[in-house]
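thread: overnight batch results

M.L. [08:02]
morning all. the overnight job finished for the chain we discussed friday. pasting input first so we're all looking at the same thing
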Amino acid sequence: MLRSLVGSEMCIRDRAEMDAYAPQNSATRAFLPDPFQNVPALSDWLSDYEKRCPPAAGKVAAPLSLVRLLHRVLDEQDHNAVVLSTATKLGFWYLLRSIEYTADDEGNFDPKRSLTWKDLILRDIEGNVLTLSRISQAHSITIRIYSGKGSLHTCTRTLKKTPDIETCAVAGLIALYESWLRHFKRAPRPTESLFLRLEGTVLSRTELAEVLKAAAVACGVHSSRVATHSLRRGGASHYAASDGYKVYVSAHADMMHKGNADITMVAPVFELH
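M.L. [08:03]
and the structure it wrote out:
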């Protein structure tokens, strides 16, 4: 099932990023002298070894079909499953880096750098700000994340609720809040992670990556080619194939120069094939 839904889409490559790093890697290699340059035999052996053992291939972009598959197979009555499903939706549609929404590999969560409930700004269809308790009425949700690029050290990204796609991130956040109330019997605290599980731990980058890697292996893709960043690349690829790139990419480029940005993104309602 995984293979039929994901298929060849798992082979999308982010060549632009790899090309962007090429000059940097070249400069680094040129900066470090060859310590064996005066030992021709050893230098030749290392050069030949490098050709036979090239650098690891870049990570692939996760397709929307993978996010949809997780949404369909995970039990919506299981809070931990809802956490995992919502995390993949946010990572994909909000183009998040792992540090922006998961705990680190040791399970440590930093509320100053990663998403908490207070970092959500909810608005109804008329643009009025809502309290968290009224999240079910949200027409759009803005996330506020840490950024070291601007003077405010934050940037925001906004998505509107899109009923036409089952992987809608706004609908996912609403479902996550409702699941939280059912299982924890209380409202989340402002500084708590969105992805707190029943055990009291926060979903980590490693745990999210393991799920993505398992899906990749089932599709015949080596696990080393997939990581949490594959969700960000997948979302970017999906936006780039639609008019969404005009909204996000141009604004993001402008942010690189001006520092702070409030970006409203439009999630495409089609599926790439």
